[in-house]
Amino acid sequence: FRLALIQLHVSAVKSDNLQRACGLVREASAKGAKLVALPECFNSPYGTQYFKDYAEKIPGESTQKLSEVAKECSIYLIGGSIPEEDGGKLYNTCTVFGPDGALLAKHRKVHLFDINVPGKIQFKESETLSPGNSFSMFDTPYCKVGLGICYDMRFAEMAQIYGQKGCQLLIYPGAFNMTTGPAHWELLQRGRAVDNQLYVATVSPARDEKASYVAWGHSTVVNPWGEVIAKAGAEETVVYTDIDLKKLAEIREQIPILSQKRCDLYGVEMKK
């Protein structure tokens, strides 16, 4: 099946972001994509100073638009993420809609991005956001898909549990920056893919040098062999790739790590 990653240029005008995102979703659907994914914080600038002003309830304006365009195009739409307000708390939240427009999954970013690299970048999502507390998976006629958001990708245990639960594709809307992007963006994706013998796709906003937080870009798809099979540059674009589940099955048969794990010696478990 065909997967499309929309590397959107995100502006400060929410209505423009929504309109352009929906237009690119329609374009991807017209080119045969069955699963379409948007980037992290696709409807607002990324930054702790923006989350409160742009936050919405779910359902709300942005998710209603996503539901409508998923139904119109009869696709599975991974709605990147938006700042969500619920019960006085803010979350970084990804919604997924099916071909009938129904909400299939809602993933709140589990691991908040609090880092300090002296002389390069300091950022604390926890100043404004609360963490999610659950894994998020959804079924399609093609395969089971696991969700994470950006920093979630650094935590190998999360991907391993998705693999144990039968996911064959992991999708991470993410906005790595100009420090962590060149160092770890591709490396982490390849690691998650080869460790668990599944496909990993990441969806970044396009790079905007004038933004307060500059995203690395380079939305990417990695196959279960750890090979990069599709990759964007820094600009706004749509990346297409065909996900070959037969290849996944062949790799797992050739190197059967999933059946050869020593579960009598170690294990990773989902607690809730």
From TrEMBL:
Keyword set, alphabetical order: Hydrolase
EC number: 3.5.1.3
Pfam families: CN_hydrolase
Family statement: Belongs to the carbon-nitrogen hydrolase superfamily. NIT1/NIT2 family.
A GO term for molecular function: omega-amidase activity
Catalytic activity: 2-oxoglutaramate + H2O = 2-oxoglutarate + NH4(+); 2-oxosuccinamate + H2O = oxaloacetate + NH4(+)
The name this protein goes by in its record: omega-amidase
Domain (CN hydrolase) ranges: 1-245
GO cellular component terms listed in the entry, alphabetical order: mitochondrion
Organism from which the protein derives: Anthoscopus minutus
Tree of life domain: Eukaryota
Single GO biological process annotation from the record: asparagine metabolic process
PANTHER family on file: NITRILASE-RELATED, OMEGA-AMIDASE NIT2
Transmembrane segments: none
